[in-house]
Amino acid sequence: MNIDDIKKEFPIFDDKIQNNDLVYLDSANSSQKPRIVVDRIYDFYTKEFSNVGRSVHYLAVAATNLYEQTRVSVQKYINAKDKDEIVFTKGATEAINLVANTFGQKYLSEGDEVLLTELEHHSNYVPWHFLRKAKNIKIEFAEINDDGEVTLEAIEKKITNKTKIISVSHLSNVTGAILPIKEIVKLAHSKNIPVLIDGCQGAPHLKLDMQDIDCDFYAISGHKMYGPTGIGVLYAKKKWLEDLPPYQGGGGMINEVKKEGITYGELPNKYEAGTMATAQVIAFNESIKFMEKIGIQNIEKHEKELLDYGLEKLKKNNSVNIIGNPKEKGGVISFTIEGVHPHDIATILDEDGVAIRAGHHCCQILHDKLNLPATARASFGVYNTKDDIDKLDEAINKCKKIFNL
Amino acid sequence: MDLKDLYQEIILDHGKNPRNLGKFDNYNKDAKGNNPLCGDNVHVYLRLNENKKVEDIAFEGHGCAISMASASIMTDMVRGKEEKEVKEIVTDFLGMIKEKDSLETNILKDDEKTKLMSLSGVKQYPMRVKCATLSWHTLTSALNNSDQIVKTEE
């Protein structure tokens, strides 16, 4: 697949949005969907629909097989050892909640510490905060440095003999910093501490190899990987999924239910209670195939080129300040313009079809640290081009003109 | 939609140089408001005298040009007015931002109404309406002695 043709695979770019060609620079928030993913949902509902894992009729068996095929695709895509290590969730948020809840129940008690970083998304802080309230645990934050990155040393500094789990981002959705997760895992394991990686921004942009990274848990968001909303993945080492208690109770996750007691199902059913987002899981297989077809190396290369071009361009634009300067950085550029609030930037850019995000990007701790209430953020996906960045730059100039800068 | 309607000169002026920004010592009513979606916040302070008149009013906070201009214009407009009048102005303003084409209250002079109407551009930008209304809701909260922080997300 030629990277120049990729935009054509996405129906959203076929038509004008508010009379403009869409310049979509909000992929860190959610990516657009290729036609094959959208079509797969339609086809499943119109030709193949049934619930999975329960009935024995033809459609039910076929749907179950399709659903399980996605599990195998994900397993291969992230190089997990076993397909039972892939748990479908409604998103990365639920994946992190699942770990915090079950690990917290079994292994955390008063005074224990959970180590996060200052650049975590709220979804990798709030679930742990629940435990702080319920169990009186402590939450520690490894600090970011002036370049907006979290180093291995910053993590090491906050590890104590009370640290029971470390939960960190793979790639910051604000500064774009790529964390040294393999080294963090190695360090943590040398102290018998398990590690959860919030892979929301990692999975769509970086090569994943669970056996190489060796993390205990990895949370993935489907809708940021060109997939449907309502689907995420929790990768967890089998030993953890066997050891931890179930998360939600309901149909599908049980073995035997009697008045006097209940036994739970085998993996992966144990963690998939109730009717799952069947169509989305099945369509997510197409997202994986789409990314495999392009090749993650090509995606990384393309986005790196966009990033370098974007940074060069915006650095030349007077009064634009770029947030963070990490050595290892993904396709995210957060910025401010002296004298223009990010929300005004976003509204003005939107007038020209340039879609960016403004606000704290669900990272208030980080923005407090940076002493900025809000930033503007342009983030890239596989469909972006250098032309998009030129349009961003032009729209920023328009913004400056309106504000007489 | 036209950006010129949203970013009129008066908005840019008040946004850049907000009037009544800060805090004064002898306030007797105050309230906080925030917009969790974007992290913007405002803290309104005012002093009601024995005749229920707004003797002084100021605000602290940070936000976009629209929210700063709105708080700036609002504080200018309600200073010296009676509590009852302030509440009528707030209701009228919020009604205009929501649906009405113009301001109806007789309390405001024509030039004051023109000033307030400069904020009507947000009507075309549903996501930005909250920026314009936050300080007004917060003013109401202060007058009602509410301890609740005003939130734009409900």
Tally the structural domains of chain B: 1
What order do the strands of the largest sheet of chain B run in, or round the barrel if closed?
3-2-1-4
Q: Kindly state the mean pLDDT of chain A as a whole number?
A: 96
- Summarize the helix and strand pattern of chain B as letters: HHEEEHHHHE
Any descriptors?
heterodimer; A: 405 residues; alpha/beta; 2 domains; seven-stranded mixed beta sheet; four-stranded antiparallel beta sheet; 39% helix; B: 154 residues; alpha+beta; Sufe protein. Chain: A; four-stranded mixed beta sheet; 6 helices; 42% helix; 18% strand; globular
Task: Please tell me about this protein's structure.
- The complex is a heterodimer of chains A (405) and B (154).
- The two termini of chain A are 43 Å apart.
- The radius of gyration of chain A is 22 Å and the shape is globular.
- Chain A is of the alpha/beta class.
- Chain A has 13 helices and 15 strands.
- Chain A has 2 domains: 3-26 and 295-402, Aspartate Aminotransferase, domain 1; 38-292, Aspartate Aminotransferase, domain 2, CATH 3.40.640.10.
- In chain A, helix 1 (35-48) packs antiparallel against helix 9, helix 10 packs parallel to helix 13 and helix 11 (342-350) packs across helix 13.
- Chain B has 154 residues and is an alpha+beta fold.
- Chain B is built from 6 helices and 4 strands; from the N terminus they run H-H-E-E-E-H-H-H-H-E.
- In chain B, a hairpin with a 4-residue loop joins strand 1 and strand 2 (40-48).
- The longest helix of chain B is centred in the middle third of the chain and has 16 residues, at 83-98.
- Chain B is globular and about 45 Å long.
- Chain A binds chain B through residues 18, 339-344, 347-348, 351, 358-360, 364, 367, 373-374, 402-404, and chain B through 1, 3, 6-7, 12, 16, 37-41, 62-66, 68, 125, 127-128, 131.
